[in-house]
């Protein structure tokens, strides 16, 4: 039987299983909490798997192997930075976040500061999650293009439809089960298949060392500036991303959120090292193969170095990585759009929209499904018509970190931080980040050079921090009643479920 046929069959079975998970999740989805945060009932095993799955997407899997192919062991730093972000979030903040019993990052800001000015953060978060979903959708479509010989728009539409179906039907319960299977497939594919087979094909570490430049074994071979950038962008971004926080909200207890997440962070670091080693070995084992783009190394290893059938499982692992990120970003975008952005925009027109329908759980779930479906279609369209979605994601990511990081973390760690200071720091940080990006782009020698520069996020963070501290010290302390309510939430004395806010709150 043709090897390519077997590989295709394995991937098709995997995709059909994803659809089945949607129907399984539907049976467990009874209300708003079930759909958005899996009823806040995930134990250590499910929580660790779903957290690792959502952060380890195409950039970590396919991109990590490609970086190892080009730079050697130092190609691990991108994924290590992601793992460090999960570790820090879990050990420092996840326990507190889990106790709040909320649904979005913007709700945390409203609770902490008692200021409606911080509700604008939902717009930035929506842009970030929507672009993340579109980027992931376009990424796993590249596997379908190679495997099925489809045109790119068809590949995006079919792959996006699969994610859209299981996310819409079952919400977070479907996504959690899908993530768990994806976590297992990725673990087997990377650690137990690709790594040993590729190392063996390269002649082991001695075979690699004898045929590559010594810089391949240098821990900083990719460049110190690049490593710093990875930690600033990815580690800090993971501390405040809605897609990551929404997984924290699914934990059954603060202990699960803390230690399950820490385990996922360690797993991510090991995953990054494994990916870099696979890339290093591939640079030797595939030395006679013409590979124009480093991200093609992953598929080339699967199809060239691995036995029949195993290559299909490894390709399924790549699709799994990208789908888990896409589905997590999609439900995060829908949650932010309904809970934060809709009431905020309505308030500008004097409308009071209550997005909580807890008295009618079936209607509430239906409303959430509509938002997931609508935004999923938008993400698919963006992925199809936009050639460089990554540029849009970079802009959203930079504003997320440069504009929102200080206000969010400041609220968690500094009691003197005030609402007016948070709003000012968000505004100044976003403007400085975006302004620096525009200035650099106008003066750049090549297209998108300013967008991908490091300076915007550095300047945005610095300006945001200075404004936050200065305005906090100069303004009146946060209302004592707001702080008392916040402390009760932090102490785990919240109601079982916090309702989604109305525009009037």
The outline comes out as globular
Q: List the quaternary state of the chains.
A: single chain
Gyration radius, to the nearest Å? 22 Å
Gap between N and C termini: 63 Å
- As a percent range, the share of helical residues equals over 70%
Strand content: under 5%
What is the overall number of helices? 19
What is the succession of H and E elements?
A: HHHHHHHHHHHHHHHHHHH
Which ranges are low-confidence, i.e. pLDDT below 50, for 5 or more consecutive residues? 498-505
Structural class, judged by helices and strands? mainly alpha
Q: How many strands?
A: 0
Largest sheet: none
Task: Give the averaged pLDDT, no decimals.
Answer: 88
Family: Belongs to the sodium:solute symporter (SSF) (TC 2.A.21) family.
Protein name: Sodium:solute symporter
Keywords: Membrane, Transmembrane, Transmembrane helix, Transport
Main location: membrane
Quick overview of this protein structure:
With 505 residues, this protein is an all-alpha fold. The protein has 19 helices and no strands.
Describe the structure in your own words:
It is a single chain. By secondary structure, this protein is an all-alpha fold. 76% of the residues lie in helices and 0% in strands. It has 19 helices and no strands. The protein has helices at 3-28, 32-37, 44-55, 58-71, 77-99, 105-113, 121-148, 152-201, 204-209, 224-240, 242-248, 254-285, 297-304, 310-348, 361-385, 389-413, 419-442, 455-474, 480-490. α3 packs antiparallel against α11 (242-248) and α13 (297-304) runs antiparallel to α14. The relative contact order is 0.18. The model is unreliable at 498-505 (pLDDT under 50).
């Amino acid at each position: 039987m043709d090897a390519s046929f077997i590989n295709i069959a394995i991937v098709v079975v995997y995709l059909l299983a994803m659809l089945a998970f949607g129907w399984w999740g539907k049976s467990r989805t009874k209300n708003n909490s079930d759909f958005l945060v899996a009823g806040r009932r995930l134990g250590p095993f499910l929580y660790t798997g779903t957290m690792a799955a959502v952060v380890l997407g195409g950039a970590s899997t396919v991109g990590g192997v490609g970086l190892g192919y080009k730079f050697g062991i130092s190609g691990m730093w991108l994924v290590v930075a992601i793992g460090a972000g999960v570790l820090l979030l879990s050990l420092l903040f996840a326990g507190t976040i889990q106790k709040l019993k909320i649904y979005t990052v913007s709700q945390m800001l409203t609770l902490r500061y008692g200021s409606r000015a911080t509700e604008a953060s939902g717009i930035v978060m929506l842009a970030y999650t929507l672009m993340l979903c579109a980027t992931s959708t376009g990424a796993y479509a590249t596997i379908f293009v190679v495997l099925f010989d489809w045109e790119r728009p068809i590949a995006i539409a079919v792959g996006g439809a699969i994610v859209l179906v299981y996310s819409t039907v079952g919400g977070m319960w479907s996504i959690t089960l899908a993530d768990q299977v994806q976590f297992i497939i990725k673990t087997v594919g990377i650690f137990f298949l690709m790594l040993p087979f590729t190392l063996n094909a390269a002649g082991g570490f001695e075979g690699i060392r004898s045929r590559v430049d010594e810089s391949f074994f240098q821990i900083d071979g990719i460049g110190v500036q690049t490593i710093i950038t990875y930690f600033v962008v990815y580690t800090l971004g993971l501390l405040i991303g809605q897609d990551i926080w929404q997984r924290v909200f699914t934990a059954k207890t603060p202990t699960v959120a803390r230690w399950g997440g820490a385990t996922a962070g360690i797993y991510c670091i090991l995953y990054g090292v494994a990916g870099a080693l696979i890339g290093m070995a591939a640079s030797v084992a595939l030395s006679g193969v013409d590979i124009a783009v480093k991200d093609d190394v992953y598929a080339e290893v699967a199809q060239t170095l691995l036995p029949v059938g195993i290559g299909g499982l490894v390709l399924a692992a790549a699709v799994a990585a990208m789908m888990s990120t896409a589905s997590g970003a999609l439900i995060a975008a829908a949650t932010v759009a309904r809970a934060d952005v809709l009431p905020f925009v309505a308030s500008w027109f004097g409308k009071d929209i209550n997005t909580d329908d807890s008295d009618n759980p079936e209607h509430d779930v239906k409303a959430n499904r509509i938002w997931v479906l609508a935004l999923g279609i938008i993400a698919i369209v963006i992925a199809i018509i936009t050639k460089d979605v990554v540029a849009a994601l970079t802009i959203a990511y930079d504003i997320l970190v440069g504009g929102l990081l200080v206000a969010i973390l400041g609220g968690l760690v500094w009691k003197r931080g005030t609402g007016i200071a948070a709003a000012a720091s968000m505004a100044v940080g976003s403007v400085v980040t975006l302004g620096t990006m525009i200035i650099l782009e106008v003066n750049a020698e090549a297209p998108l050079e300013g967008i991908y520069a490091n300076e915007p996020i550095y300047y945005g963070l610095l300006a945001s921090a200075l404004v936050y501290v200065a305005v906090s010290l100069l303004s009146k302390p946060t209302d004592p009643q707001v702080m008392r309510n916040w402390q009760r939430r932090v102490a785990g004395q919240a109601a079982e479920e916090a309702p989604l806010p109305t525009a009037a709150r």
